[in-house]
Amino acid sequence: MLKSLRQSKSYKPDPNLLANRTILVTGAGDGIGRVAAIAYAKHGANLILLGRTRQKLDSVHDEIAEHTGQASLIIPIDLTHFDATSAIELKHGLEGEYSRLDGILHNASILGPKTLIEGYPYDKWIQVFQVNLHSAYLITQAALPLLRKAPDASIVFTSSGVGRRGRAYWGAYSLSKFATEGLTQVLADELSEDSNIRVNSLNPGATRTSMRAQAFPSEDPDTLPTAEEHMPLYLYLMGPDSSKCTGMSLSSNNWSY
Ligand code: NDP
Predict the structure, then answer these.
(1) How many Å lie between the centroid of ligand 1 and the Cα of residue 11?
(2) Which terminus of the chain is less hemmed in, N or C, by CB atoms within 10 Å?
C-alpha cells in the first residue's frame, strides 16, 4: 500500500502537460471538480466548466483567469433536468465554439439518501441515477463528434469504492457507480475499435469535500486527504502519458504508471 502511494505521488506531470487541449469538467464549481479544473488549467488546458451553481463556476473561472490569464467557458446546467434535448443543445453549443475536444472529466454526482434498499424512495433513486449516470451518458454522446477530432482524447468517469464493492445503505449512489464502471468498460471497448479515445474510471477515495461530510457527518475532515492530493492521477489520466490506458478502473490511493 505504502509502495503504491509513493508510486502515485511520484508522478510529476510536465508543466505543459495539457497545453492546447480543451477539457470539459462537470461539477466544476466545488469539491474535487473545482480542484481538478484549476489543476488542468494550470497545466495549460482551456477549460469548459459545467455545473449547477453559476456563482461557484464564476469563482473557478476567476481563479483560473488569475493564474493563467485564460477565460474558461461556463455552462450552468442542473443535471437533474438534463435530457436528450439538452444534449443536442450542448452538442451544437460546443461545436459552435470548438473544433475539437480533448477530454471530459465526468465528476458531478449526488449522494442521495443513505438508507436501506427496502425503504429507498423511488423519486430519489431516479434522481441519483439521472445526475450520476444518465447525464454523463448524454454528455458523452453529445461530445463524441468533437472528441473524435482530437489526436488522443480522454474520457474519465468518476467512480467510488462502493461502485466496485457494494455496501449497505449506499443505495442508488452505489448502484449508479457500478453502472458507471460498466459504461466505462463498454465505451472503452467500442471506442478502441475506431478511435484514439481512451475511457477510464477513477475512484478518488475518501476526500475532504462536502459530499464526504454529508456521508460521514461525525468524521473529522482534517483526517482526510484533500482533493489536491489526488491530482497526480487526475492529471495522468487526462494527459498524453496515459494514452495507452483504456478500460481501466483506477484508484487514487493505489495506482502506478
Ligand atoms: P461535492 O458534492 O463536493 O461536489 C459535487 C459537484 O457536483 C459540485 O460542484 C456540485 O455542484 C455538482 N453537482 C451536483 N449535483 C449537480 C447537478 N444536479 N447538476 C450539476 N452539477 C451538480 O462532491 P465531491 O467533490 O466529493 O465528489 C466529486 C466526485 O467524486 C463525485 O463523482 C463523487 O461521487 C466522487 N467521489 C467522492 C468521494 C469523496 O470522498 N469526496 C469518494 C469517492 C468518490 P454545486 O456545488 O453547485 O451543488
Answers:
(1) 25
(2) N
The per-residue pLDDT for range 59-107, each reduced to its tens digit, is 999 999 999 999 999 999 999 999 999 999 999 999 999 999 999 999 9
Q: Which residues line ligand 1 (CB under 6 A)?
A: 27, 29-33, 51-53, 56, 78-80, 107-110, 131, 158, 160, 203-207, 209-212
Identify whether the C-beta of residue 78 lies closer than 8 Å to the C-beta of residue 135.
no
Could you tell which of 57, 107, 156 is best to mutate to test the pocket of ligand 1, judged by most ligand atoms within 8 Å of the CB?
Answer: 107
pTM above 0.70, yes or no: yes
- pLDDT tens digits, 151-176: 999 999 999 999 999 999 999 999 99
Q: What is the DSSP letter of 240?
A: G
Radius of gyration of the chain (CA): 17
Beta-sheet pairing, 249-251 with 103-106:
unpaired
Residue 194 C-alpha to ligand 1 middle, in angstroms?
Answer: 32
